[in-house]
Amino acid sequence: MVNAKTKVVDVIRTMQKQRKEGRKIFYDIYTEEEKRRDPDGYSLWGGSAGARMAAYLGSYGPGGFGGPELPRAGAVIMQYTGHSQYSRQDPPTFACVGGRGGIADWRVMKRRLECLQTYGIDTEFHMYPRMPHGFGLGLGTEAEGWFDEAVRFWERNRTGKKAQGE
Questions:
Q1: Whose CA is closest to 81, among 57, 98, 60, 62?
Q2: How far apart, in whole angstroms, are the C-alpha atoms of residue 42 and residue 25?
Q3: Rounded to two decimals, what is the model's pTM?
Q4: Phi-psi region of 2 (alpha: psi -120 to 50; beta: other; left: phi over 0)
Q5: pLDDT tens digits, residue range 63-117?
Q6: Structural contact between residues 126 and 108, judged by C-beta atoms closer than 8 angstroms
Q7: For residues 40 and 159, is the Cβ–Cβ distance under 8 A?
Q8: What does each C-alpha distance from 29 to 26, 33, 134 come to in angstroms?
Q9: Distance (Å, whole) CA 49 – CA 90
């Protein structure tokens, strides 16, 4: 059985190989109107292996994987992943995870955010004790509302301003 970390590493290696071969790995999915919008403060969202991808893109930007050079993301919003790597370049990060995940230990996520905080990076962590891996929006559960909290976190960090109004 292949674990999530192995899958992400394989995907990243494939993307790096495609880049070296001059092949496109990012595809234009935006309308002309969307292209005219200011990308400043965009956020990256993902759950499980997708959260690892969001974190890597937050650390290195799309340019690090052959995509366009964009401004730094305003925030990474991640759910239930065992991603433990971090850097001083990471954007503010919001994480939520279930205590009964089984696949991704919540302590790994919490420890990663604590490390980001030592670099002065804004973080927010939520662990829902009764939730499993893959709870999505958490509607009708103890995790309900995490999405709104994540949006507030993103808005707070969108222009690099903390909640205190710096």
A1: 98
A2: 20
A3: 0.76
A4: beta
A5: 888 777 888 899 999 999 989 999 999 999 999 999 998 888 899 999 999 999 9
A6: no
A7: yes
A8: 9, 12, 26
A9: 18
More confident residue, 9 or 116: 116
Distance CA 67, CA 154 (A): 23
Tokens linked to 152: 């507030």
CA distance 5 to 54: 14
Identity of the residue numbered 157 = N
Give the DSSP letter string of the chain. ---HHHHHHHHHHHHHHHHHTT---S-----HHHHTS--TT-EEEEETHHHHHHHHHHHHTGGGGTS---PPPSEEEEES-------TTPPPEEEEEEEE-SSS-HHHHHHHHHHHHHTT--EEEEEEEEEES--TT-TTSTTTTHHHHHHHHHHHHTTS--TT--
How many Å apart are CA 98 and CA 138, to the nearest integer? 10
Structure tokens at 123: 């973080």
Tokens of 156: 């707070």
- Residues 90 and 59: their CA atoms lie apart, in Å, by 5
Q: Report the distance separating Cα 56 and Cα 73, nearest Å.
A: 11
